[in-house]
Amino acid sequence: MRPTPLRLRRSIIGLVLCALMTCGAAPPTVGRPPVEWLRKFARPFATCEPGGTDRDLAPLRAVVGDARVVALGEVSSGTHEFFQMKRRIVEYLATHMGFTLFAIEENMPDAYRVNEYVLDGRGDPKALLAGIARRRRTQEFLSFVEWMREFNRSGRGRLQFLGFDMLGSTDSASAAVTRFVARAEPAYLDSVTHAYRLVATAPRQESRAAGARGLFPASVAAGHKIRFSGWIRTENVHDGSAALWLRGDASRKNVVGGTTRDVSGTTPWTPYDFTLDIPDSISTIRFGCMLEGSGMAWFDSLAVEIDGIPFAGNESLDLTMERTDRPVGMDISVSKGGAYAIDLDSTTVFAGKRSLRIRRVAPDAPPATATWPEASAASTRVLEHLEAGRDRLVSSSAPADVDRAILNARTIAQMSDVNVGPAGKREDIMAENVARMLDQAAPGSRIVLWEQNLRLARRVSLGARLAGRYGREMVVIGFAFHEGSYNAVAAGDPPGEQLAKPSSPGSLEWACHSTGIPRFILDLRSAAADPGASGWLAQPLPMRNFAFEAIPEPIPVGQYYDALIYFDHTTPSKSLP
């Protein structure tokens, strides 16, 4: 089973935050970048590739200092240079600075199995990686895990591989706890069976909506009236509706948005539209077609008018969907084997040769017979029982078996708790898991975290919670690049090389590119002594959060990250077969 966090009935907000295609809007104006300051404080390193001398990473000592937590971000999970440089940093921290814990956003039991390999050599690392997130199933990450095993085997140190997430299937975790209790404490088996029956019959996680989504050039529409229209046909749409939507954001916050009225049931081709006044402050406009619930919907003849003048499209965006056999400028990726399919249909059209079709292909889930609050309370009681009885249980079972049962029980209880909510509960729990790792380790232990930039940034998500707990004992290192390519790991599509547009003037990456230094480490905190540099980093500054972004949202970079790893050029990671 997987989690089903509570959501508003309309899932537009969740959809429009997904990965989107790029467009040609201009980034917002920011202060002149302090290129000379960047050249002065940038610390070039020789290579991202491991295996040679690590003397070029000596600047990390000053960056990390006495921090207990080092958080390594990334802009893309499909970039060779990011994988390799993060590995080099972990190697350096484990070899020279006493770091003994490595943690990643993976389901805790899945990571536990990888940890058994890196500590004791149990299992096949390639097979173990098949059980973790697809974006990390790369040759680079496999080589990193194999290096961890060799590091531990050599006696040079001890580095654990841990997960701090609870999401993912809990079926195997439930079965593992049940088997352990049946053997170690059969009198408690009925309570475990009852608790996990509630978890199994709580509302299933399933996608309840899917859509095609794109990015509209904000510079064209900002300060104007925009009308979004199209024709929609539906067949047996129920438990939801079909719609067009559009929203405008400024500084990562939704400012304006609209949607057509709900369309459900079976309806013929019908025109729909809505009009919005787009403020001057808008930096990003996202739009799309959506089907929520079951059934099938077709969308055709999409059009945008700006102050009554039709938008003709550009090389990056084709609203007619007639240019190729895939929409140009709209992302239609869905989970492989998931509940929905999105394609262009030549058999049902309003005009031209194709329409966009969104359909639910999975059967509806059976009705739930338990609630998540019930499941959460019962699974938490199981966890608390095992934790309270650990000393008693280890008298008749191996300590490792007891601890593994507790870990599995904790995963189930946390997953259930996330489903109860509120929003942000997952990040709260992940931060607690990281803290537990440090608290349960030997005094003075230090941990390296590996995730995306925004997940670890000091002002948002998990990073904000950890920063509140550890303050300056945590160092957050963001990653950035100017141009190159990356391995796309879009849901529903096989990995493949994608080109990233070069950064734009005014962005952080463009300023780094202007130094002429191909790769470097930069301690952003050193800007405090330079008013021009500190002011530049404190203002909202465009910086890519994802490799596909050509027009990134402005963020206060100096408040998000303590240091930066920059590459002028990147290449794709190598996916495992």
Automatic annotation (TrEMBL):
Statement: the UniProt record of this protein carries the keyword Signal: yes
Keyword list, A-Z: Signal
Keyword Transferase: no
Alphabetized InterPro entries for the sequence: Emycin_Estase (IPR007815), Hydrolase/PRTase-associated (IPR052036)
Domain of life, per lineage: Bacteria
Signal sequence range: 1-25
Gene Ontology process terms (BP): response to antibiotic
Coiled-coil positions: none
SUPFAM superfamilies hit by this protein: EreA/ChaN-like
Name the UniProt record assigns to this protein: Erythromycin esterase family protein
